[in-house]
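Action item from last week, closing it out:
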Amino acid sequence: MIALSPEAEAQLDALIVHYEALGRVEALINLLNALERAKARISERPEAGLPAPRPYPALAKAGRRWIIEGSYWISYSLTTPPVISGVSTPWPTFLIVCEAA
């Protein structure tokens, strides 16, 4: 089981609130499904992630990898077990929150 860091939980909560406020039920379902698929991919091959999202190479940090799942960039640690440290959208405001994590 892959856990979420407190920062990743806060980012996920912010996205959920955002989608609920807009009445975007389908977007909320897609977010949760993407997170489950990301957890499965990370569990299978944690080393397969990228050092940073391709459009944002400055976000690279030692011991962290990134994957894209659906519309979301997911960052995670290479610890055993891995921990999801960020859930971000392609929108810059959510990437900024993720970068601080």
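Closing note: Strands lie at 3-4, 64-69, 72-77, 83-88.
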